[in-house]
Design goal:
The chain is mainly α. Helix content is 73%, strand content 0%. The chain contains 18 helices and no strands. The longest helix is centred in the middle third of the chain and has 53 residues. The chain is globular and about 50 Å long.
Length: 427
């Protein structure tokens, strides 16, 4: 599967794409509205950053309690209920007079559900596409995210002017409800990919199994830390340029879209692993310029260029799936997404704290420099030549290729689980 036409002919990819589109639009519009609402009420760079990215911190709760359900729930039911609950929670944050602490309580309550949703969505994508189509499908969903962020931030800025932050939050709630409706109508019923009942204990066992491999640990750290530190820079856009935050977010989304198109569709397989570290460096280095507080057009150009580097996650997710047995792939992708978003939330809190005591520009420069340092430290281990299949929790390479649990597929056919994935981000 090498063309977009073939991809959209794959069963269920189109409704998954449309549901992801609506959910991303809701997240983008709602996040900008919440950041603006909290900043207007408090004047705090820290609280406005946490309003947009802080709920990601709660993903760690989902990663440690709910992720075993990612491969053990019927995908259609999960992808219908989860955005419906998010729609309700978003509508609650729009209630007039709701205290800021109550807004954060709702947001942090929704975070664990987002962790589960990311795992279910990633596992379903891998299940519905052929082995050679996953990277292309993941890149298209990321392109969808980039496009919806460009449109969503622009539309969000306009809605804030016309409807106010609370009216914009209600619009976001409607978009989440639309995502739930599309998933319910467009996806077919499928049995869970793995047998057994989800539980907190099972989640911990699977997390320990995934983390037991040194090679997977390096991949996870490269997925989480450099990316998260740069998102800490993004969390300060409202405080950095209150009148032009929408432009900076749109520029970042445009850069991410460009990177996903180039890497997902045009970069040949033989070059992919060589591009990982350079792309992660590109992700951080342009933000060093923002520490000098350049004019807004130059700052937007730097943000767009840096965001091309987010495509590094495509390559790392592809490697993660190569190192993970089939019965754990949904869980592995959910752990990636929730870990990445948790890192982003921690980085947003750290960046907001630095900005509180220095300035948004200084904090951006510090976060970008830290991302560069982490990328350089991880690069030798990731670049080392790897031989054979990775052993899973002490098992032999041959055993590692087999699912830990015998997954069940609705079509009755097993899937070749040898490859693919990206972004965490579509949480």
């Amino acid at each position: 599967m090498r063309t977009y036409r073939e991809l959209f002919r794959a069963p269920e990819f189109t409704p998954l794409f449309l549901a992801t589109t609506a959910q991303t639009a809701g997240s983008t519009v709602g996040g900008l509205a919440l950041g603006t609402l909290v900043h207007s009420a408090t004047g705090s760079p820290l609280l406005s950053a946490l309003a947009m990215f802080g709920p990601s911190l709660a993903q760690v709760v989902g990663a440690t309690t709910l992720l075993s359900a990612a491969d053990r729930l019927p995908p259609r039911a999960a992808l219908t209920v989860l955005p419906a609950v998010t729609a309700l929670g978003t509508a609650v944050t729009a209630v007039p007079g709701l205290p800021v602490w109550a807004v954060f309580a709702v947001l942090f309550g929704l975070g664990p559900l987002a962790a589960l949703g990311g795992g279910v969505r990633g596992g379903l994508l891998h299940e519905t596409l052929t082995a050679d189509g996953y990277l292309l499908g993941r890149s298209v969903l990321n392109m969808c995210v980039g496009t919806m962020q460009i449109c969503g931030f622009a539309a969000g800025a306009a809605l804030l002017t016309v409807l106010s932050p609370r009216g914009t939050l209600l619009t976001a709630a409607a978009l989440y409800a639309l995502a739930a409706a599309v998933a319910r109508a467009g996806l077919s019923r499928r049995a869970p990919r793995a047998a057994g009942r989800p539980s907190v204990a099972e989640t911990w066992r699977d997390n320990a199994l995934l983390w037991s491999s040194a090679r997977r640990r390096r991949v996870y750290l490269a997925l989480w830390v450099p990316n998260g530190l740069v998102v800490g820079c993004e969390a300060l856009f409202v405080a950095y340029a209150p009148r032009h935050a929408g432009l900076l977010y749109a520029a970042g989304a445009f850069g991410m879209l460009t990177g996903d198109v180039l890497v997902g569709r045009f970069v040949p397989a033989r070059l992919r692993r060589r591009l990982g570290a350079p792309l992660r460096l590109l992700l951080a280095c342009p933000y060093l310029l923002l520490a000098l507080h350049p004019p807004v057009p130059l700052a937007a150009a730097a943000v767009a260029l840096a965001s091309v580097g987010f495509a590094a996650s495509l390559l790392l997710q592809e490697r993660l799936l190569e190192l993970t047995p089939d019965g754990l792939r949904g869980h592995a992708l959910g752990l990636h997404t929730s870990g990445m978003l948790t890192a982003q939330g921690l980085a947003a809190a750290l960046a907001g704290t630095l900005a509180q005591f220095t300035s948004p520009a200084t904090a951006m420069g510090a976060m970008a420099a830290a991302s560069v340092v982490v990328t350089l430290l991880l690069a030798p281990g990731l670049a080392a030549r790897e031989h054979g299949a990775d052993a899973v929790a002490g098992r032999s390479p041959a055993a590692a290729a087999e699912p830990r649990n015998a997954g069940r597929h609705a079509d009755g056919a097993g899937r070749d689980g040898s490859r693919r994935e990206r972004r965490g981000g579509i949480g």
